[in-house]
Amino acid sequence: MATLLTCLSFGQVVSAQTPNVTALVEQGIKDYNAGNLFNAIKNWQEALNQDNNNPSVTAVVNENLARAYQQVGENKAAIISLSAAIRDYGAIANIQQVGRMQSELAQVYSNLGQPRKAIALLCGQLVDKPKSYENQPSQQIKCTPESAAQIATKYNDKRGQVAALGILGEAYRLIGSYDQAIQYLDAAQEVAPEYKFLVFNSLGNAYKSRGQLRELQADSANKTGIFSKEQKFSKQSVEDYDRAYQYFQDSIKFARNEKQPLAEMRGLLNLIQLDSQTNKSKLINDEEFNTTVKNALKVLEVLPDSATKVYGAIDLAYLQPDAKRTSPFTDCANQPVLSNNEALKLLENSVLTSKKLQDNRLISYSNGALGHFWECSPDNEKALKNEKALKYTQAAIVAADNKLSAKDSLYLWEWQAGRILDKEKRKEEAIASYQRAFDTLEDIRSDILTAERDVQFDFRDVVRPLYRTLAQSRLDLLGVGAIADERRANELSAVVKTIDALKLAELQNYFGNDCILSALNPKQVGELLKDNSVAFQNTGFLSSIILKDKTGILLQLPNQATKFKWIEDPNQEGTNKIVSSDALQKKIAEFRTGLIKGKEEFSYDTTTAAQLYDWIIRPFAEDIKPEKVKTLVFIQDGFLRSVPMAALYDSQQQKYLVETYAVATTPSLRLTTPKARDGSTQKALILGLTEKATIDGKDFDQLFAVPDEVSAVKGIFPNHTDLIDKDFFPESFQKTLDKSTYPIVHIASHAQFGIIPEDTFIVTGKNQKLTISQLENSLRNLNSKSDSVELLTLTACETAVGDDRATLGLAGVALQVGVKSAIASLWSVSDQSTSELVETFYTNYRNAGMSIAEALQKAQIRMIHAKKLPQSESINPSYDNPAYWAPMIAIGNWL
User: Hey, which residues does 797 pair with through a beta bridge?
Assistant: First the structure.
């Protein structure tokens, strides 16, 4: 959209200057038009230095200086120049031009991955709730008077309006507000139909993105068993893809008729990518796909040197018919559309073009892409290909690092260099490259992951493999020869930092916002263990890291060196001892299935639980002797989150793990505040559902045990408020919290955790649901600080099977809403046993002054000993089966 505004306009300036300034400005124009951008910048900067007191002159010089900076990839300098132009145009009361400069500045911010800043410039406000404008005509979307969109409207500047609305639509697309994006882009078409062709590609991309979101929503609905919802989203997804296809076709047609090859190229590439990235149905047949690719190659030949030409060549070189990945540079393509020779020619030309343009961002991207080609080329002449791969990759790093002009891709090339160095057995250098990639990504990850989008970029492609590769490289290094204790400690400390960052990134990616980061302790895990040795007294921390072919466990104890072990099978010998990650995952699935189905068996079979104990716990037996360690806190990875460690079985002692240790879990120590609770926390809000419910077409059974559970909690907390069945719904929950603060919030209802936050909710009365977002907002809006909620308890939960992100719902609930601790169930046990367990837990917690982990431990041990209890406190003897007590876990602060 900014192309509407980017035309040089120096004619009016020249006559007003001294001869020397005039000469500098004119020479800058000649240099710019000839492609000598750095000379143009030099001359214009000198002109500003010689005359910086005349805003009518400096405004226009700064405006065009900003465009030159953008052309050479100097976006930070462009921002400074555009900001100066806005100031200078304001000084001479040229408000129309102020609006246009705001639009251009917004475009730069959007290009830099900062769409929220772009929205603030364009509209003056951010619409946080997309549905709030869902039914409003686009003309009714109001922006603040000083914003670019309103300035253009006030001055009837059609070109400025289209630019502002178009860039605004793109910015909303980038933060995942696709309905908003489409409305703004539609508004841009209505303002000036003669410019509507400029928004075709943006509209196509908005519909494509919304189609991908709806496809993911359909998948989530399928996994949670809501099939009517799945059909609805699948149908909407196909409709969105069809609209995207039509807009891309229209953009190609118009561009071709108007002989605009740059616009035609964008349309062709968008159409190709739409087809290759669509999972459910092909929009064009193979013949049309191949024809479109050929047309794109023809257009590429006649394109003027430009960013579109460089990126277009790279996109075509790495084109695959089924591109499920979001980055082509994280691994090697399986089925490229073009031959190796065709791809190589395109990539070499892209390097030459980027050099001519003198744009560091383009130079970095084109060299990195060519380096990746050589990294992935066949293994003949291996040394030569690695040499070329490293040469171009290092050139990409140098260009990206030049004034940080391409920090958002710098981590890709550092990561790539690490892989190449790894192939050459240059382990130390490889680790250094991986570490630089990690550090760069950590620096910019917040901007990438806080985008409020359900279709992420995708974390599984771009972040997780890098973090795991770095961790594995450091761990592998520990097994090579003798390593000094200090070096070993430093390497393990770096591994802990990497694993912790991975877990934080997963949480942030799942919830799609920065609430997680707002609660983050700036200190690293090692520092926390030293600083909080009293709080962590008698506590051991076991962290897992699942790698490609094996899984590692790290043990951390306060003021002690970190211990590390690969998971091994003691019954195997030699190299076969290492348990593969696939074998572990199968064993974990077997363990979970056995637990869930355990109550159907007369006696629970502990074989699998004992095997996992031998793999995970026994290797650290000497370090965690019960006389020293009373509580074990697990910081789990991936599929290990879906099972309760409390039910692991020590076959030698014939005890479950929880009989020896209190057990808790947390996603990250840096998100956990270990602090003894306030003994005066006696006030409880009790929420419950006993009736059947239907949500989004899915039936939820009546919970017969909830009345007893609620009655028991009421008895333990006389100072309580209860909302049951028809009295429990989102609005009543909010109103109750507005009136008072409750340190204890107990929810006895179905809770579902889907693979996207939208499908994470608590079932309430009146066939309504309390979503994770509503729960968060309600608890964050308390009259006093949200950390006054000591404990949130959720019973009768369900997690979506088959996607380990679902368990982030459990681990993240407490953190997301700002409470200190949570007790939640890993699966639904709608039985009297839950009431029994909860009553004992609260009695221990409320009256005996136990820590949360200890209170839960004692409640679970009581059930394990169900057959041995005296007559006076007897319970159902079958409750000794872990199917009844194991799914309840403590999350967050365990004290």
Answer: 751
